[in-house]
Amino acid sequence: MAHDLEVFWFSEQPYGHVTEDDLAPYESGRMHFPNTYFDPEKAHTLYSNYHDQYQLADEVGFDGIMSNEHHSSYWCMKPSVNVDAAVITQRTKKAKIAMLGNVIAVNDPVKMAEEIAMLDCISGGRIISGFVRGTAVETLHAGYPPTENRPRFEEAHDLIVKCWTEPGPFRWDGEYWPHRMVNPWVVPIQKPHPPVWFPGTGSPESVIWAAKHRYPYMNLGSLLDLTKQLKGIYHETAAAEGYQAGPEHFGYLIRCLVADTDEKAQEIGRTFLWTENHRNRGPVEFNDPPGYQSREALRIKMSRPLIGTGTMGRRMSYEELQDAYNIIVGSPETVTEKLRHIRRDLEPGYILIYGNEGHMPHQDVMRSVELLGTKVIPALKEG
Amino acid sequence: MTTALSGSRTTVNVNGTAVEMYSGGSGPPLVFFHGAGGSSGWQPYHEDLAAEYTVYVPSQPGFNGTEAPGWVKTIADVAHFNHMFIAALGLQDIVLMGSSMGGWVSAEMAAMDDHNIDALILIDAAGIKPRDGEIAEIFMVSADTRLQQRFHDPSQVENYANYTRELSPEEQLVVHSNAITASQLCWRPYLHNPSLPHYLARVNSPTLIVWGREDAIIPVECGHLFQQAINGSQLYIIDNCGHSPAIEKRGEFVSAVTGFLNSNSF
């Protein structure tokens, strides 16, 4: 089945005023870095800028906007993807809205089903509903035992889909989210329900889960070789499930910035490395507390020789990351060529442009959005 | 450097679940339940106690070589399971001893049914929330921090190098698997049961509560709270000692325990 490439804009909405020096004294960049560094007045300006970027991305021809959610993180000022998606519905007219996604392992699934359905109705059916387990910190932040993340995720998924596809009222005798009476008034405009995406970085378990449900898998910027291995696992799983996976099942997130010249882009793009080493710094138990990974996940990892950390290519230099196609910066011509390489190499149905980071100047990001929309994306789609 | 110890490893079938167990000695039965880190097998203090008691050291469900039945998800479930374990062995009139999380399990077991428990010994037990202090974070900290929290003075610990050495991949898997079980059992409410102090009002077994005064994981205040909750119980506090008195102050610990048991003529 032919699938036209779709290109999405994404911004973490970082609180770019944080510096390396601010972070250095603290044991970790998340649980220990105090929120006294957050200035709501500055955040107000940043939010406005990020929403302007959304609007422009829609106007210049991006197929969609992607958003996400994190907690206790200075690099992502979005503790609610649904709130951000509500903004996107009002600042854009055509773009799909990909939420990647709701942390359904730790949020009441009936309320999630209602809110996503509401967004789908408001946007006229533009919602793509990603479901995520969240990083371990999201689970710690919510106070749930890490051992329950996976079963809570599975049960929440089943309940949300049931809310969208079966008439209420009904009883849900779940182990983790029991509801005696479920009857959400608002249901989605898309039938049978909005498309569901599932993201991952290095975990084969995530790929297998997505493939078994026939949900598109979005790789969040792992190095190309690892990504190809993970994509291979998707294809293997799909074949075992009795269908053939294609580009429509696979997307790839890439850090990318365009400027009028290569030199200017090189200079601005350096900010992609902003405070990178601080994000997951701290005891490994913060990012992988006991039980967050199941014994089954451990078994899968041990049975396959691949899988390093795969997360955004940490510890590589700016230049090395560019050589590895993990960061792409340059003039429209340079960026188009490099994205063509990724398209040939990975054959993704969706390219998600991680287009902003740290304290990148708003005007430079706006220019990048414009050049991507008017020059790079049309050229890329021509082949 | 290690003494030859008498504890031998066997397997006990508990309603279809194979329980790994070390046992040795002779005399009345004494059953020991380990803490959240899992079983360390047959230890020197077990050997000491084996001079007067038949000592049983099982791995609780989900720890070490014992699989967890699917229904075991809470400390109360573990307590019920452990009662089944004692029944499977056919033990009568036991000394029930538990350390840390194992102390919590033992307290829950005694509150459920103490008719078969001749004496209860709780060592730096989890299970009661302190009023003034806090139970230290044990999951979201590094292994180094956990070790520092455990012992007050490493120079008092025999074979301390054994706690800091590099683990084999197989040992690492066991440690990780034990941590998953402990996380499941103890995450929320964190290492305590708000109802436990009330349950304990019906415990009639003679009870000794042993605590390291400098316990950096479960403050000694909790030892006082256990004593207040269990009628007629005795509290024995060991000075210059952390969370594991049976290891860090083995001689004084064993004397306190045998003294208590002999004075109650078991």
**Sheet having the most strands of chain A:** 8 strands, parallel, barrel
The CATH top-level class label of chain B: Alpha Beta
Strand order of the largest sheet of chain A: 1-2-3-4-7-8-9-11
CATH domain topology of chain B: Rossmann fold
The CATH homologous superfamily name of chain B equals Alpha/Beta hydrolase fold, catalytic domain
Unreliable segments of 5+ consecutive residues of chain B: none
- On the 0 to 100 scale, the average pLDDT of chain A is 93
Describe this structure in words.
Chain A is an alpha/beta fold and 383 residues long. Chain A has a single domain, classed as Luciferase-like domain (TIM Barrel, Alpha-Beta Barrel). Chain A is 43% helix and 15% strand. Chain A is built from 14 helices and eleven strands. In chain A, the strands form two sheets. An eight-stranded parallel beta barrel of chain A has the order 1-2-3-4-7-8-9-11, surrounded by eight helices. Chain A has a two-stranded antiparallel ribbon with strand order 5-6. In chain A, helix 8 links the parallel strand 8 and strand 9. In chain A, helix 7 runs parallel beside helix 8 and helix 13 packs across helix 14. The longest helix of chain A is centred in the first third of the chain and has 21 residues. The two termini of chain A are 17 Å apart. About 3% of the residues of chain A have low confidence. With 266 residues, chain B is α/β, with parallel strands linked by helices. Chain B has one domain: 3-Layer(aba) Sandwich (Rossmann fold), CATH 3.40.50. Chain B contains ten helices and eight strands. Chain B has an eight-stranded mixed beta sheet, sandwiched between helices. In chain B, helix 2 crosses helix 3. The longest helix of chain B is centred in the last third of the chain and has 18 residues. At the A-B interface, helix 10 of A face helix 6 of B.
